[in-house]
Design a protein that fits this description.
The protein is α/β, with parallel strands linked by helices and 296 residues long. It is built from eleven helices and nine strands. The mean pLDDT is 93.
Length: 296
């Protein structure tokens, strides 16, 4: 990094970090609960095959403990996904139903769509799910199936269309979106689903905190908003640095009877990593040092 980039990084991180500090509260705005880290896909842009931590489905007691604390602090948004396919959790619908019963305003899942049978779609709609994002990469069947192995393009399109039909028939307010981060033609990606879903979002391939799935980052550093906004609980109760910490390399705490979300959120380790980001010292955090999300 050049001297100009270093000075720019320090200035930018100080200002943005100060804004995040000012806007932050004593409890995360978004809590991400990984109810399972199992996945039935082997996408070429994802390091799931490199994951060494055991595949675990979250215990019901732990899940309810987390949701109950979120409800007590009036956390309005919970995501029931992280590093896995949430529909591999056979209790997903029950978890959605429980969280809604506790007053959580927004329940969201990110899915590859391959397991969205009519039964599962109807179950999620009836449970009160508020939003589902379908990961959908590629500009057509060939490109999609080359990236999102071994999923079938036509099956995913059919499943999403049926989900929307079931939603509409039930008069549900469920929002159905498509997210894409790898395509050679955005217009072509949208063509098959643009008259079906409620919207699209296009992002860029990131490098999962160092894995070589994207170009090496360079330039001016930035403070990562995730450290001030989102909280990620893995399926075994450990708290990961962020959603990109797929192998739990940087654990900030562990949720359980003796440790709450607020304990970890306001604890020493979260305070330390926020301070390093605010001071443009991300190089001292291995996962952040080469993460594409840590640069403008």
């Amino acid at each position: 990094m050049s001297m100009i980039q270093d000075l720019s990084s320090r200035a930018a991180c100080r200002v943005v970090g100060g804004v995040y500090d000012f806007a932050a509260s004593g409890f995360p705005a978004v809590v991400r609960i990984e109810t399972t880290n199992a996945c039935n896909a082997r996408c070429t842009i994802c390091p799931h095959q490199s994951m060494t931590r055991p595949v675990v489905t979250m215990d019901d007691g732990l899940f309810r403990w987390i949701v109950d604390e979120c409800a007590a602090w009036e956390c309005r948004e919970i995501h029931l996904h992280n590093f896995g396919e949430p529909l591999l959790d056979r209790r997903l619908e029950d978890r959605v139903r429980y969280a809604k019963a506790q007053g959580i305003a927004k329940l969201k899942v990110f899915s590859n769509g391959s397991l969205l049978t009519d039964q599962r779609a109807r179950g999620l709609v009836e449970a009160g799910l508020d939003e589902i994002k379908i990961s959908f990469d590629g500009a057509g069947r060939e490109e999609f199936e080359a990236v999102r192995r071994p999923l079938q393009f036509d099956r995913i399109v059919e499943n999403v269309a049926r989900l929307v039909e079931i939603r509409n028939a039930a008069g549900s307010k469920l929002t159905v979106l498509v997210a894409c981060c790898s395509t050679s033609d955005k217009t072509a990606t949208m063509r098959g689903l643009e008259r079906i879903v409620d919207g699209f979002s296009f992002g860029k391939i990131h490098n999962w905190g160092g894995e070589e799935f994207a170009e090496r980052p360079r330039g001016v550093r930035k403070t990562c908003s995730r450290l001030w906004r989102t909280f990620t609980v893995l399926s075994d109760g450990r708290v990961a640095l962020c959603c990109l910490d797929y192998d739990a390399q940087h654990v900030l705490g562990r949720i359980g009877p003796n440790t709450t979300i607020r304990d970890v959120w306001t604890g020493d380790e979260y305070t330390r990593v926020r301070s390093l980001h605010r001071e443009a010292r991300q190089d001292e955090i291995p996962l952040c040092s080469r993460c594409t999300k840590s640069f403008f």
